[in-house]
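INSTRUCTION: Work out how this chain folds

Fields: amino acid sequence; protein backbone structure tokens

Chain under study, with its fold:
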Amino acid sequence: MREEIKNLKEELIQKLNNINSLKELNDLKVEYFGKKGPITEISSKMRDLSIEEKKEIGMLLTDLRNETTNLFDSLKEKLETDALNKKLESERIDISLPSTKIKRGSKHPMSLTIEAIEDLFVSMGYDVVSGPELESDEYCFERLNLPKGHPARDMQDSFYITDEYLLRTQTSSVQARYMMSQEEKKPIRIIVPGKTYRREDDATHAPQFSQIEGLVIDKKENNVSLADLKGTLEVFARKMLGENLDLRFRPSYFPFTEPSYEVDVTCFKCGGKGCSLCKQTGWIEVFAAGMVHPNVLRMNGYDPDVWGGFAFGPGWDRITMFRYEIPDIRLMYQNDIRFLSEFDRKDEN
């Protein structure tokens, strides 16, 4: 019986080493430890043994059961882990992949326009500067030759936060700040793109709109003149709106420039023949411009007898509308993916 238990143990271990599935393992356990298995059969024969033999055979059977049970348990754990991993691998879902195609984003037409404008002016030697949108009355009006009570203030229906602070109505306020910041007075060539705010809301005006202010100041001995302003605006208009455009300067009034001009360009849609866009005139107003007023120079630290220059201010929104033939300014602020997807292409201008 001792030899039988030894052989049984070796046989069982050998079979365990060849098991490849949980089903095979369970079948083997039933085969050897079941009611009709060889281990149960040996246990039933022990009643015919002497007390000393029972003790010896009982210990051998206990060792067999303990050792093989540990082997069964270890192998079962391994097979269960392997089965789970196999199932996870076969049923894996990659949650990083979208269930449906995601629409690819594109740059906003306003972003496309300002990038093109900045690239142009930087190539012409200008710096791009910025300033606060919450501005003081001093910089927004007074230092631009618009003292308190000036009637021209009525042209700009402003958003005042307090008696002295408001949302800036023009980026011209940054001109004054920049001029005041120059402790050592030197020539200036800057553009100031940014948001501005006025109480306006229709197809061509919005309470928040964007403006690009341009400023050139140099010593009078360098003869910065209206011809330089016209040449600069011609380059700008033709680069942004089309090579075949012409400019028309109309005398106007702005407190911070003298002389002052409204600047029109030939209608890019009809080529100057007259259409609904230009109201049959053949021209579209794009710029406000002029030579910097001596009072503005003086109030901001530049001697008007020594220094002179010009300023201009196109509406960045309107340039974008003209450039991409957008009929309503409000479309650019609604974040409608259907509208924005129209600009998901390489800009050819």
Q: What stands out?
A: The chain has a mean pLDDT of 84. The first strand starts at residue 127 and ends at 128.
